[in-house]
């Protein structure tokens, strides 16, 4: 049995108190929301904070406000609450799809939106127990000096495996971060670095409070996820696509984001720009899929064959754009997911 290391536990009731504790404890403290990623990591000694600051009882972190100007989602909303919300449709459909495919129903009942956005990067050589990692001399991400994915690399190549971040990037989301010294609002795209260790630009004393989305009239969105099993597993490839259409079904704006192909979700800017001013006919979809898939350069750090994952990236972008066009993709989804989405 893997046991948690010893730690102090703090349970603030206000955001101000939580921020003050994090500032006072410094890098020895970590915020705890659902704990579905952090606590297993602690058992494997991947993360060993001396203090956990629970956000469970902090007021104002579980709100869900939808209005004409857009949507505000508290960071401690559970993924189950997001997946079960029928108001998230059309432009927001992909967010429900992503949340509903995270892990299992039991984990979704506990896991939070903010936790999934800040999810630690993953790797075949990092996500092992302490004794296994010790037997290989550990790795560059934790306790070692070598990235076993690419031993000559000076950079950790662990991958971003969050489901919700690619979708939120495709939807143009922003996040609000609060610390003892103030607060800031930044585009979600500015939160990530393509570095397996320093993968997120959130300061140690900041709390991710909420996600903000503008109103998305005329938009459609979708999310596709590759994993070995139909549930539980992290994505080893994901595609989020969102587009705004004119009344003549011409693309006016588009974003395609690839997940689990690098240490951060990658925005396929070239593919998105190519779609603008065009209808989604087969030739346009094929070219956009080809441009987006160029970003996918899989390495030996997750499940499945590398070259096959590269081919699937092009297929998934194709499926996503076909779905945005209005095609019925239920049979394809069922083939890849082993089950159909309920919406």
Please give the structural blueprint.
Blueprint: E1 8-10, H1 15-25, E2 29-32, H2 38-43, E3 51-54, E4 64-67, E5 70-74, H3 79-83, H4 93-100, H5 105-108, H6 113-117, H7 130-135, H8 164-170, E6 174-179, E7 182-187, E8 207-214, E9 219-226, E10 237-245, E11 251-259, E12 266-267, H9 269-275, H10 282-293, H11 306-325, H12 330-337
Parallel strand pairs: 1-3, 2-3
Antiparallel strand pairs: 4-5, 5-8, 6-7, 6-8, 9-10, 10-11, 11-12
Helix pairs in contact: 9-10, 10-11
What does this protein look like?
The protein is of the alpha+beta class and 343 residues long. It has two domains: 1-59, Uridine Diphospho-n-acetylenolpyruvylglucosamine Reductase, domain 2, CATH 3.30.43.10; 64-118 and 159-337, 2-Layer Sandwich (Enolase-like, domain 1), CATH 3.30.390.50. Helices cover 29% and strands 20% of the residues. It is globular, with a radius of gyration of 20 Å.
| Low-pLDDT windows of residues | none
Morphology: globular
Q: Quote the average pLDDT.
A: 96
- State the domain count: 2
Spell out the CATH superfamily of the largest domain.
CO dehydrogenase flavoprotein, C-terminal domain
Q: Looking across the biggest beta sheet, what order are the strands in?
A: 4-5-8-6-7
Q: How many β-strand runs?
A: 12
CATH architecture of the largest domain: 2-Layer Sandwich
Number of helices: 12
CATH class of the largest domain: Alpha Beta
What fraction, in percent, of the residue positions are helical?
Answer: 25-40%
Distance separating the two termini: 39 Å
What portion of the residues fall into strands of 2 or more residues?
Answer: 15-25%
CATH overall fold name of the largest domain:
Enolase-like, domain 1
Structural class: alpha+beta
Largest sheet: 5 strands, antiparallel
Radius of gyration: 20 Å
């Amino acid at each position: 049995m893997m046991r948690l290391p010893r730690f102090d536990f703090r349970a603030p009731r206000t955001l101000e108190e939580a921020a003050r504790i994090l500032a006072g404890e410094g890098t020895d403290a970590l915020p705890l929301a659902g704990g579905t990623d952090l606590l297993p990591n602690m058992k494997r000694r991947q993360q060993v904070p001396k203090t956990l600051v629970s956000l469970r009882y902090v007021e104002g972190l579980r709100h869900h406000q939808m209005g004409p100007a857009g949507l505000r989602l508290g960071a401690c909303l559970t993924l189950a609450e997001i997946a079960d919300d029928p108001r998230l449709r059309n432009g927001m459909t992909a967010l429900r799809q992503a949340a509903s495919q995270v892990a299992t129903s039991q984990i979704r009942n506990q896991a939070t939106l903010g936790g999934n956005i800040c999810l630690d990067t993953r790797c075949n050589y990092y996500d092992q127990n302490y004794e296994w990692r010790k037997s290989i001399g550990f790795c560059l991400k934790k306790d070692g000096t070598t990235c076993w994915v690419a031993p000559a690399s000076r950079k950790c190549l662990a991958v971003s495996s969050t489901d919700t971040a690619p979708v939120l990037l495709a939807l143009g989301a922003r996040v609000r971060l609060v610390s003892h010294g103030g607060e800031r609002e930044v585009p979600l795209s500015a939160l990530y670095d393509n570095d397996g260790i320093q993968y997120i630009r959130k300061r140690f004393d900041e709390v991710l409070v909420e996600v903000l989305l503008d109103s998305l009239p005329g938009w459609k969105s979708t999310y596709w996820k590759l994993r070995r099993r139909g549930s539980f597993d992290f994505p080893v490839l994901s595609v989020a696509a969102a587009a705004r259409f004119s009344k003549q079904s011409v693309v006016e704006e588009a974003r395609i984001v690839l997940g689990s192909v690098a240490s951060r979700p990658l925005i396929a800017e070239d593919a998105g720009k190519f779609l603008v001013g065009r209808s989604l006919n087969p030739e346009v979809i094929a070219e956009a899929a080809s441009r987006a898939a160029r970003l996918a350069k899989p390495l030996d750090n997750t499940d499945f064959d590398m070259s096959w994952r590269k081919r699937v990236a092009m297929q998934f972008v194709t499926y996503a754009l076909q779905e945005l066009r209005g095609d019925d993709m239920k049979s394809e989804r069922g083939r890849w997911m082993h089950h159909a989405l309920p919406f």
